[in-house]
Amino acid sequence: MTVISRNPADPADVLVDLPEPGAFAVADSVERARAAQPGWADGGAAARSAALGAVASAVEAAADELAALAVREVGKPLAEARAEVARTAAIWRYYAQAPYEPTGAVHDTAAGPGLLLTRRRPHGVAGLITPWNFPFAIPSWKAAPALAAGNTVVLKPAPEATACAVRLAELVRRALPDAVLSVVPGGATEGGALVSAADVVSFTGSSQVGRAVVRSATARGIPVQAEMGGLNAAIVLPDADIAQAAAHIAASVAGYAGQKCTATSRVVAVGAALDPLREALAEALRAVPVGDPADVATVCGPLITRAARDETAAAWQGLSVLAGGTLPARTGWYAAPTLVEKAGPGHRLLREEVFGPVAALLGARDLDHAVRITNAARYGLVTSVHTADLSAALHGLDRLDTGMIRINAPTTGVDFHLPFGGAKASSFGPREQGRAALDFYTATRTYTLAPCAARP
Q1: What is the rounded CA–CA span in Å between residue 191 and residue 198?
Q2: Whole-angstrom Cα distance, residue 29 to residue 395?
Q3: Which run of H or E residues covers position 128?
Q4: What's the rounded Cα separation, in Å, for the pair 310 and 307?
Q5: Buried b / exposed e across 358-391, counting CB within 10 Å, b at 16+?
Q6: d(CA 199, CA 150)
Q7: pLDDT per position as a tens digit, 405-424
Q8: Could you give the count of Cα atoms lying within 13 Å of 132 in the half-sphere of its Cβ?
Q9: What are the residue numbers of the active site?
Q10: Residue 314 dihedral angles phi and psi, to the nearest 5°
Q11: What order of strands is seen across the sheet that includes strand 338-341?
């Protein structure tokens, strides 16, 4: 088996073609990381903070190179690639302060003299399995808190983002001692071996693989978190600014060809909002610039593979197409931003994440009905609500079964200093990002300090 990564805008351009290293190579990387972990953890807060800060500076210095690599390897439009690189540097700089944070608390005993202490300690080796769509940011928001807490890291990136992961690791390793972070390319064999050997596992990817990762990790009794996508809805109430809502939703449907777990794939228009939103959103999607991801004006570039393009096209077959519904005739794997309606309750667009620039428009009688439609999906990552009535929004917020809710904003876009994660089939385990990540990558211990008996 080989690891192959192609430019989705020019499939003849092959970035990576190398043999998969196999399970034994993964086990060797984990053992080397385990041997390096005590020295890294015991080196002190200042050393870890300085190292993570140096990574942030290295990413900033290589920003143009990294953005160009993301454009070439995963087809990310240039403007989004630049934003991701800037976000990546900010993530490392944010977690560079974490080593100085308190790692526990001191309490009085319930009775008598003595003290009770709590202390968070690193697990050991963090095994990270990451997707291709955010090739720098996702590995960073997993690795940076793991390292800040004193763990070492073995990263297994998606094959389609191998070149990005290897280049990021080169920059990171310059600031770290040997074997504190390593990358093992590959596929299912390497991913399974990492889950079988690491001390804590963080996964982002498909639901099917994520469930397998969770089963394997929990069987071993190790901490695991899995982010497994979404079928995100945008609810638009009649009093919303329809033009603004349409612009936000179009960006969430078509940005990066819909290849984000936070992309909008269901649009629920409440009552009188349906007709004006249908027209405004169709027009907004038709206006989305589709083309070469290296063009800074491009919003919707290619799908990551031919199979992904074909799967997206299959999703709109047989439905009423309001915008798009075509495959542009150009080199690469492109699909036009598409809006459909009249999808029945059992249609795939309402059951599964397609991961392409396509969304279904649905009507709801009132806000309660819209909430029921939104909650009917087995996923619950993020929902956007568009309204001028804050009380209505808050009423809906309380009953939405979703991990993140955004008012008058796109479903896409998250803040790395706050917890990230969803409900139901979208997520398993503790939240990512922010201080929640530091909790996940550490185990809390409780110490009892009783006084010694007085000597005669």
Answers
A1: 11
A2: 50
A3: strand 125-130
A4: 5
A5: bbbbbbbeebeebbebbbebebbbbbbbbbeeee
A6: 13
A7: 999 999 999 899 999 999 99
A8: 28
A9: 227, 261
A10: -65, -25
A11: 320-323, 338-341, 358-364, 264-270, 232-236, 382-386, 404-407
